[in-house]
Specification:
The complex is a heterodimer of chains A (121) and B (455). Chain A is an alpha+beta fold. Chain A has 5 helices and 5 strands, in the order E-H-E-E-H-E-E-H-H-H. In chain A, the strands form 2 sheets. Chain A has a 3-stranded antiparallel beta sheet with strand order 1-3-2. A two-stranded antiparallel sheet of chain A has the order 4-5. In chain A, helix 3 crosses helix 4 and helix 3 packs antiparallel against helix 5. Chain B contains 14 helices and 18 strands. Classes of the chains: A alpha+beta (121), B alpha/beta (455).
């Protein structure tokens, strides 16, 4: 069974794929308010990912979620680097899995908050 | 059609075991042996603090329960989900201590124990019975097994289930008896803004002229799917939709990845503060309870709490109060539709003797339909192929990556409430650091109080 990983794109990420073939593979969600790139993940790879990140899970849509930010960031960088949404991207990221897990470990302690004004709350 | 009115408390009367007269309180505590309340720990992380149960009992949220259960009552709850006075109740509620603490205390049946919190006198426990439990047995029977409860239990409970681990981590000695709070706690900000124990909540409903209210029990910040659920479920009622949507958050130790309690409360409050639901029709409250994630079993407790608070209806979604895939995802809805005989319910809990009076409103799910261009109800919208589901984990991923969610997924003010508390804790979700900090500060402060202890 194939699972999926959705990489959400904000303006900064969109600018990195501008003019490439990837731009044509953009998926929009929620009335076009969210743009993403979707990687198909064969079952053998989703098993490996779940084994590396114990908090990760497959949601009701079949998407791998609760993945560390560091892992998703690395995936996006490899997508841009390889201009691909194939398994080759996951393979490349897994070559650095120890380093990514180390970063992910730190994420369970601290994630910098976005700099937005919350004074009205 | 007969007009509905506020249901009576579960068991007939609201329990009020809070002493407000300081002289009387001091007299009750003088001469007692004292014990400092300790959290239940798992791998060095606090997963429960019994003080939350004491508050919820003494202020009437769990009426008619009045204290730590005697052995026969625990057995009856585990076998039939009934108290010794016949009323339905889902969970064993106990005050547990270690063998070492029991030996050091030197108390026995008939003694009065002073319970201290944050170093101050807080409550007393009048000990009726002392007995021992097997925590693994209690944990297993609390949640059920695939063999004993095949209607809804799909997999054996294990160390990944937070509620199961709370019961499994209990100390072996149980001191059973009634609790009485003798030193009223002061809720810290922001909890103080949302403190509506049942008596006060019922008064508030009366002040508002609110005859019908539907409860939304939550452990989450609201995304727009939750908002759609609340708005649409509230169309039930009698000759008119329910007047009030009462959001009640469960506050206590939670599992990793849930949102901090402060963010949950303020995010829900933002829904009406910024008028996505009229403030006149929306109220946010909380109950102290370290969530057991018991799906159908937990839904019984939620029904009891919300009936005690005065609600006429309770909405139940799919996977109510669930974690993992231990229960059928519709277990709660099965319970409230036809009952679960193996848990003691040949009929729904509101149709059995000594059952609940609150009316269940089972709801399916909401998704975004690009074809309809709106948040749609799954049983109404026919565009199954086009649907775009809102998943909590999807939104958590977006939050963790620092992406401002679009308005169609989460209201900006709700997101800002998350970020406000993210700035405080350096993390947007519950993690071990948050749990430790929470157990240190708790939700309350206890005023200083002098008592003469037993020497």
């Amino acid at each position: 069974m194939v699972h999926y990983i959705g990489l959400l794109l904000d303006d900064a990420r969109l600018s990195k794929i501008k003019g490439t073939e990837l731009e044509k593979k953009l998926t929009t969600l929620f009335g076009g308010q969210i743009k993403s790139l979707v990687l198909e993940v064969p079952e053998e790879w989703s098993k490996k990912i779940l084994a590396e990140f114990p908090n990760a899970r497959i949601d009701s849509r079949g998407y791998l979620e609760d993945l560390p930010v560091a892992f998703k960031r690395a995936l996006f960088n490899e997508v841009v680097n390889k201009k691909s949404l194939g398994v080759d991207v996951i393979e490349a990221v897994f070559k650095r899995i120890d380093e990514i897990k180390e970063l992910a470990e730190k994420e369970s302690e601290y994630i910098p908050p976005p700099e937005i004004d919350t004074s009205e709350i | 059609m007969a007009l509905l009115k506020m249901p009576p408390p579960h068991g007939g009367i609201l329990i009020d075991r809070v002493i407000k007269n300081p002289d009387r309180a001091k007299k009750m505590a003088d001469g007692c042996t004292a014990f400092d309340i300790k959290p239940t720990m798992l791998d060095g992380i606090p997963i429960r603090n019994v003080y939350r149960e004491i508050i919820s009992i003494c202020y009437g949220f769990f009426s008619p329960v009045e204290g730590s259960m005697v052995r026969n009552e625990v057995e009856r709850v585990l076998e039939e989900r009934r108290l010794l006075n016949e009323w339905v109740f889902p969970y064993p509620i106990v005050f547990d201590v270690s063998e070492e603490d029991y030996k050091n205390l030197g108390v026995e049946e008939g003694d009065r124990l002073l319970l201290r919190l944050k170093g101050q006198p807080f409550a007393i426990l009048d000990i009726d019975e002392v007995y021992r439990i097997d925590p693994v047995d209690i944990a297993t029977r609390t949640f059920g097994t695939p063999e004993r409860n095949p209607e809804v239990v799909k997999a054996p409970f294990d160390q990944k289930h937070p509620g199961y681990m709370i019961y499994r981590s209990l100390n072996p000695v149980i001191l059973a008896g009634k609790y009485t709070i003798i030193n009223e706690p002061k809720f810290r900000d922001p909890y103080n803004k949302f403190w509506f124990p049942p008596v006060r909540c019922r008064e508030e409903f009366k002040k508002k002229g609110c005859r019908t209210a539907i409860a939304h029990q939550t452990r989450n910040v609201p995304h727009v799917g939750h908002e759609a659920l609340m708005k649409n479920a509230a169309y039930t009622g009698d000759v008119e939709p329910c007047r009030t949507i009462l959001v009640n958050a469960i506050i206590g130790a939670k599992r990793r990845g849930d949102y901090p309690d402060e963010a949950i409360l303020e995010a829900h409050a933002a829904v009406s503060r910024f008028r996505y639901i009229k403030p006149e029709r929306h109220m946010v409250t909380f109950t102290l309870w370290d969530m057991r994630y018991g799906n159908p079993i937990e839904s019984l407790l939620h029904g009891i709490i919300m009936q005690n608070m005065g609600c006429t209806h309770h909405m139940f979604g799919r996977d109510h109060a669930a974690v993992g895939e231990y229960y059928d995802m519709y277990a709660t809805q099965i319970l409230w539709t036809k009952g679960i005989p193996s848990f003691g319910f040949e009929a729904p809990p509101n149709e059995v003797d000594y059952g609940l009076k609150i009316i269940p409103q089972n709801m399916a799910e909401f998704w975004y339909c690009p074809k309809c261009g709106e948040m749609a109800y799954s049983e109404t919208c026919g565009h199954e192929k086009e649907k775009q589901k809102l998943s909590g984990s999807f939104i958590r991923g977006m939050v963790a990556e620092g992406i401002f969610p679009p308005n169609i997924i989460m209201r900006p003010e709700v997101y800002k409430a998350i970020v406000k508390w993210w700035k405080v804790y350096g993390y947007p979700f519950v993690n071990p650091k948050y749990l430790a900090e929470k157990d240190r500060t708790l939700e309350v402060d206890i005023p200083p109080m002098e008592v003469d202890l037993k020497r």
